[in-house]
Every structure is written in structure tokens, then in C-alpha cells.
């Protein structure tokens, strides 16, 4: 490695999460502050919340069927002229 080209590397950089957990990693910064880590992230902790996914899908299907019906009726009226 060339001297003066690369930033300083800290093998024991301290990471602090908003949940209070601290751990060390290798980084070019000596201290890191993060908002979420593997302990408090919903995917890793198993506390995922599904926000009304079924309701959104049903609304989409309803709009799609209405749009298909409207398109079919327009094609019938245009074709009959």
C-alpha cells in the first residue's frame, strides 16, 4: 500500500447502535453510530409487522377488475359503430 493515498484503518472501530448495543468492526472511522443493527432490526429479531398487505392486494384486484370491465365495454361500443 502506498502511504498517504489510503485513509487510516482502525481494526477495532467501535459501533454504537441506537438500541444501546456496541460492537467492534474494522473501519476507516474510529467511532460509528448507527440507527439499527442486527439485534433490533425486525428481519433479524423476528418482530416483523405486516401492514395490511392483504387489504392492499384486494384493493388492487378490485381496481384491476373494474378497469378490465371498463376497457371491455369501451371496445364493444367502438366496435358496434
Kindly summarize this structure in a few lines.
The protein is α+β, with helices and mostly antiparallel strands. It has two helices and three strands.
Mean pLDDT metric: 83
Task: State the end-to-end CA separation.
Answer: 78 Å
Radius of gyration: 27 Å
Number of strands: 3
Number of domain units: 2
What is the CATH topology assignment of the largest domain?
Rhinovirus 14, subunit 4
Global geometry: elongated
Binned, the helix content reads 25-40%
Q: Helix/strand-derived class?
A: alpha+beta
Protein model, in words:
There is one protein chain. With 81 residues, the chain is an alpha+beta fold. The protein has 2 domains: 1-49, Rhinovirus 14, subunit 4 (Irregular), CATH 4.10.80.400; 50-81. Helices cover 38% and strands 22% of the residues. It contains 2 helices and 3 strands; from the N terminus they run βββαα. Strands 2-1-3 form a 3-stranded mixed β-sheet, with no helix packed on it. The longest helix is centred in the C-terminal third of the chain and has 27 residues, at 53-79. It is elongated. The protein starts with 9 loop residues before the first strand and ends with a helix.
